[in-house]
Amino acid sequence: MNAIAFTGVAKSYGSVRAVEELDLTIDAGSTVALLGPNGAGKSTSIGMLLGLTRPSAGEIRVFGDTPDAAVKQGRVGAMLQDGALVPGMTVREVVSFVRGLYPDPMPLEEILTLANLTDLAGRRADRLSGGQAQRVRFATAIAGAPRLLVLDEPTAAMDVESRRSFWARMREYAASGRTVLFATHYLEEADENADRVIVIARGRVVADGTPQEIKAAVGTGTVRFTIGDQPTAGLDALPGVGAVDVRGSTARLHTTDPDATVRALYATGLRVADLEVKGADLEDAFLSLTHDR
Length: 293
Ligand SMILES: Nc1ncnc2c1ncn2[C@@H]1O[C@H](COP(=O)(O)OP(=O)(O)OP(=O)(O)O)[C@@H](O)[C@H]1O
Prior knowledge:
Layout: E1 2-13, E2 16-27, E3 31-35, H1 42-49, E4 57-62, H2 67-72, E5 76-79, H3 91-99, H4 108-114, H5 130-142, E6 148-152, H6 160-174, E7 179-184, H7 187-193, E8 196-201, E9 204-209, H8 211-218, E10 221-226, E11 241-247, E12 250-255, H9 258-267, E13 273-279, H10 282-292
Parallel strand pairs: 3-7, 3-8, 5-6, 6-7
Antiparallel strand pairs: 1-2, 1-4, 8-9, 10-12, 10-13, 11-12
The structure holds adenosine-5'-triphosphate.
Adenosine-5'-triphosphate (ATP) binds next to strand 2 and helix 1.
Keywords: Antibiotic resistance, ATP-binding, Nucleotide-binding, Transport
InterPro entries: AAA+_ATPase, ABC_transporter-like_ATP-bd, ABC_transporter-like_CS, ABC_transporter_ATP-binding, P-loop_NTPase
Pfam family, one: ABC_tran
């Protein structure tokens, strides 16, 4: 069964086309990353999925129902980018209040354990660090034991250690057959935590596949050099190269094997100046994926 189905979904705000035309289905039980740069349309898509805002065109189904119906039945939990925590309440009070809103919630202690909040349960929720507050938001998102968990850039306020621990807990939740959809800017997060990665840029899907397929398409590194007015034909056939992006006199090769690409590049006989090899620059990769379309 599909957990999520978007059919021809578009959303405009005046003249801004936040989502162009989204057609996608997500299987129940999968963990899917929505990967894209700022302004790609991730939050808008999530907002529509949760019934917070209506599409300008097209249709969305969540477990076969409208988003509103699915949310009302307590089948969907969400952790959004902002969302103030009620002032003056302890962590335990906040979580147990939210839990009380659902027909079939998870036991309180289980929520606190899963969100790593047992030690903070007596603390005031509005006086926590950014990363701790994110754990409370995660707890409120899973409180109703939702079949679909939606997370919009959940680790934005977290340091490296908190991120690692957060994703371990998310995977634990997902392991029980639940569906998870999360938005992120980071390819590593998508790679490590999702079975499927949907890359969106400028309101459209530009790539969709397993993390391995996406990494092969965007490359794990970038080889940049000044090509001047020399011909660019054949650069895309160099070993490892998935995409070529030439802007002005600069060429960027997105590659899965920068060493092999550089060796082969010198063997072409091109005059290569200002060579620079970097780890994958997603922003560049997104741009070239968007250009390719
Ligand atoms: N309420 C709104 N009114 C007008 N424009 C909006 C509104 N919400 C979003 N937009 C615009 O729609 C586009 C998509 O924004 P959205 O927030 O969905 O992107 P995003 O991928 O979530 O970005 P980020 O990673 O920065 O959160 C952007 O151009 C944004 O400025």
